[in-house]
Amino acid sequence: MEYLESGFVARGVSRLMLERGYSPLVEFTLPTGRRLDVAAVSDSGEIVAVEIKVSLADLRADEKWVEYLEFCDRFYFAVPENFPQEALPAEHGLIVADRFGAAIIRDSDRSRVAGARRKALLIRFARVAAERLARAADPFAP
């Protein structure tokens, strides 16, 4: 059930990012091998990272999200409406989402990804997006 709810939250977050002018990718793998639940890029190259949590157990068991901070300009937690928001770190952004959409409850502070890292991330992002599009058009491609 958590997997299904996580997918609904990812869909709502993706819709929100599109509404705000960002291009989102669900499950974007960073150079470290860690996978962001949602990564989004603006037309100016700003990188947003979103970590989805659907239960307190999920939040308490996961300490890897702090590793994402150096790979984004803005970081948000995204949760379903019934999630106890007071359990989340207050210093990061907060999005509440369902399968129909999402709202930013608390904006994220902005930091700056280093120039060389940004370039590498944007190239990775573009390649992943292009490959996903090609595989969707031809699921039997090599």
User: Whole-number average pLDDT?
Assistant: 95
Radius of gyration: 15 Å
Oligomer: single chain
Which term fits the overall shape? globular
Per DSSP, the total helix count is 3
Distance between the termini: 33 Å
- Main beta sheet: 6 strands, mixed
Low-confidence runs of at least 5 consecutive residues: none
Q: Which structural class fits the helix and strand makeup? A: alpha/beta
Order of helices and strands: HEEEHEEEH
> Could you give the count of β-strands?
6
Major beta sheet, strand line-up: 1-2-3-4-5-6
**Relative helix content:** 25-40%
Determine the strand fraction and express it as a percent band. 25-35%
Written overview of the protein:
The chain is an alpha/beta fold and about 140 residues long. The protein has one domain (about 1-135). It has helices at about 1-20, 55-60, 115-135, and strands at about 25-30, 35-40, 45-50, 75-80, 95-100, 100-105. The protein has a six-stranded mixed sheet with strand order 1-2-3-4-5-6. The termini are far apart.
